[in-house]
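Justification of computing resources. Each target in the renewal requires a structure prediction run like the one illustrated here; the chain below, 133 residues long, is used simply to show the kind of job we budget for.
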Amino acid sequence: MHLDLSTLDAGLPRIKEAPADGGTVELIVRRPAEDEREILTEARLDPVLGLVGDRWSTIVEDDSDRQLTLINTRLVDLVATSRERWSLAGDQLYVDLDLSTANLPVGTLLGVGSAVLEVTAAPHRGCKKFAAR
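Resulting structure tokens:
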């Protein structure tokens, strides 16, 4: 089911109210194989592998600029229409945080548990599967 433009427009103010700092991780999803999702309560982040156990490290050659993807929970809540469908977005970290480039320019460091993530210039574009859902 795709939402119409007026519904998406109506949801924008809530998305824009996401906190600029002090955000929270609301969901962690590991993708062990294509089209598989595991909901985690905690995860280990590795500087080489990204999210340990996620298939990213097995399908991408030396692309450390894209080890993890984050998605705004307010956005995914709008487009997925229910929390049960959030994991279909395919991201690993679902955060209540303003992910705009104005708030998180390239080079920004984010603390996630004991890990420190760096925002890179690599664009995060939804895959064809996400668009089809």
